[in-house]
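Predict the structure of Extracellular solute-binding protein.
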Amino acid sequence: MRKKKLLSLGIALVMIAGLAAGGCSQKGSGSTSDSSGAKEQESSEPVELEFLFGDPNRTEIFSRIVEDFNNSQDGVHVTFNATGTNHLEELMTRLAADDAPDLTSQLQGFELASYVDAGYIKDIKNEPFMKYIRDTELDTVTIEDGVYGIPMDTQAWGVFYNKELFEKAGISDVPVTVSELKDCVEKLKASGITPFAAGYATEWTIGQFLGYGASSILTPAAVELGDDYKKGNWTFDQPGIDQAFDVLDLVADNTQDRPFDTDVSGQYAAFAKGDAAMMLQGNWSILQIRELNPDIKMGMFPLPISEDKEALLFPKQYGFVINVLAASEEDPAKAEAINQFMEYFLNPENGGGYYYDEIGVPTANAVAEPELDEASEILQTYLQDEKTVFTYYAYEPAGFDAESWKVTVQYLNSGTKDHKKLIEDFDNAFNKYADALE
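Done. Here is the predicted structure for Extracellular solute-binding protein.
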């Protein structure tokens, strides 16, 4: 899950503060002498790097890889600083204080462009470690002629399902149309099985319906508008959106009791225990579900939002992106240390090997051959058949997503099923942040 709260004003303030801090950071000339003993001591010290990390779902495995790297050699030491869900706020604060880390994460799409325009992120297209990344996986980290991020794995959003509960309800095939999804829900209910596990107390668990679930409608429309979209000439009243919102209603009407009193951990637990047959989530959830129930028989399919099964696409983006801060270019030793760390991490014989195996999802790494979790089987087929669409998240104005989550939750709480009002509220939220697109 990605929180995008960077506004254009925020970037401007960060730049001003950074310039001010830079102007005040000149050290006095003092003594320019340096003994050979001091030089020897300095050369024996490892190059220090800081990795400001922002994905709670991958904190444990990344911290383990960093520790393994530090133990594998003496020339570079990486400090792993996990910020959790406040990652972008922490990054902005650090940049404003002229205290940039060397590596960070999570920046892609329009959000990344804001940081690139401000001069904070390094173009890494010619770095040696990029040999590991497929050229076809660079869409949302490419800005003009530069590449500003390292995509790690394919993040997809859809419907997790319990294979044993589907079998119990007599469901042999996953649904590929809205009608089939409705039929699936009715069969589960007739068998005494709750269709969906929900965790609406954590707003993004259902708020992501717009940014992920409706991507096959919204992303092509936004791309087709091009510059007009970036100028804010946009509405969510797109062909097919009404039926997509019917699916949102269908899901909300068929969850466990009191879904607004359950958070994301409760959603994971309900699905893992078999208290519900399905769950709307991203494949970042695989690790959490497996920790709760290693033996669960589960799969994942794209959420149908129309009656055209040929139009059914898996919404995807890069599940994890590493960004290199431009400030590292000022220190050749740090630049080389970053290359050394990324070589270790991306090489499947080192950290890249068990990282990809443990997360169990398809990868952007051209060399790695990970062991995929069974929940990734359908996704892998859709990827091979090129039946995917980039999530609308990659095209949203910064700050819009959290606002859209609130709109979605308010709509579901109202119980009105007034799609016209929902579209109006989404449009108003978009207009509030549209300036961040330019």
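The first helix runs from residue 8 to 23.
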